[in-house]
Design brief:
Blueprint lengths: L2 E5 L2 E4 L10 E5 L4 E6 L2 E7 L3 H30 L1
Antiparallel strand pairs: 1-2, 2-3, 3-4, 4-5
């Protein structure tokens, strides 16, 4: 599970098997987990987070989107070797 970024209490990561799906990230923290698609940014699934927390996480995803896409691509490229 490569970690792509950390922001406050959140760890933004992906699974190696995620390369077969469109670009997305998983976010875990103390209170739950979410999955966000990156193109365009939108919520895929959420467990345990309030709408307010999801909004905060989405703000982070929006802000870091370019870096997260690059990280996703880098991990998938290494996995294909």
């Amino acid at each position: 599970m490569p970690t792509l970024a950390r922001a406050g209490p959140y760890r933004i990561f992906m699974f190696m098997s995620d390369c077969v799906e469109p670009r997305h990230v998983h976010v875990e923290g103390v209170h739950g987990a979410v999955k966000f698609w990156l193109e365009p940014v939108h919520l895929a699934t959420s467990i345990g987070y309030s709408p307010r927390q999801i909004s905060r996480i989405r703000t982070i995803i929006d802000r870091e989107r370019g870096m997260l896409i690059q990280g996703f691509d880098d991990v998938c490229e290494r996995a294909q070797r």
